[in-house]
Amino acid sequence: MKSEEGEDVQHLEHHESIDKLKELVKHNNICLFTTHLTDVPLQTRPMSVQEVDDEGNFWFLSDKDSNKNWEIDEDPRVQLFFSNKGANEYLSVYGHATMYTDRKKVEDIWSPIAKAWFQEGKDDPHISVIKVAPEDAYYWDTKNNKAVSLIKIMASVVGGRTMDDGIEGKMKF
């Protein structure tokens, strides 16, 4: 299949999709977490992924009294947008969010940096866990590393050719 730009689009199946999610998120775990997908304006905020599990679920820590949690309670559909400009990697994930107050899961995904938002640490009574189960995802990245891509871009400008260094793909879960 070809994209709008004429590039080949890869279709990744379940395990390939999960591996690709983990690879892309490993390089940049901050995303724009968007709720209220049917209402304008969309509600978007930066969030840090604590974990991508072996089923491809994204796990976040959140204040149980936050607007985000209320919005998820009203409509669990969410969109996550990742951008790793330095490596030319981009990812868009559509999925359904579920909220938990499971202390064991908080313990499992806790990181010391989370204390900046939860002053009482792992035992903060305001912590909730959000799981986003992906339903649809699309990614864009390069075939080569950034240095090789930059050289190819410069060569295409000088040579008057179109550069074809991109890979994009749809993920199935």
* Nearest-integer average pLDDT: 85
Described by strand count, sense and barrel closure, the largest sheet is: 9 strands, mixed
**How large is the count of helical segments?**
4
What share of the residues lie within helices? Answer: 10-25%
Structural class: alpha+beta
Question: How big a fraction of the residues is strand?
Answer: 35-45%
CATH class, named Mainly Beta
Number of domains: 1
CATH homology-level superfamily: Electron Transport, Fmn-binding Protein, Chain A
CATH architecture: Roll
Alpha-carbon Rg, integer:
18 Å
Topology diagram in text:
Layout (H helix, E strand, L loop, with lengths): L8 E4 L1 H14 L2 E6 L7 E6 L2 E2 L5 E6 L3 H8 L2 E8 L4 E12 L2 H7 L17 E16 L3 H14 L6 E6 L2
Parallel strand pairs: 1-9
Antiparallel strand pairs: 2-3, 2-6, 4-5, 5-8, 6-7, 7-8, 8-9
Protein name: Pyridoxamine 5'-phosphate oxidase family protein
Pfam family, one: Pyrid_ox_like
Task: Outline the structure in words.
Strands 1, 2, 3, 4, 5, 6, 7, 8 and 9 form a nine-stranded mixed sheet that branches. Strand 2 and strand 3 form a beta hairpin. The chain has a single domain, classed as Pnp Oxidase, Chain A. The longest helix is centred in the N-terminal third of the chain and has 14 residues. With 173 residues, it is α+β, with helices and mostly antiparallel strands. The chain contains four helices and nine strands. It comes from Chryseosolibacter indicus. This is Pyridoxamine 5'-phosphate oxidase family protein. Pfam families: Pyrid_ox_like. InterPro entries: Split_barrel_FMN-bd (IPR012349), Stress-Dev_Protein (IPR052917), YdaG_split_barrel_FMN-bd (IPR038725).
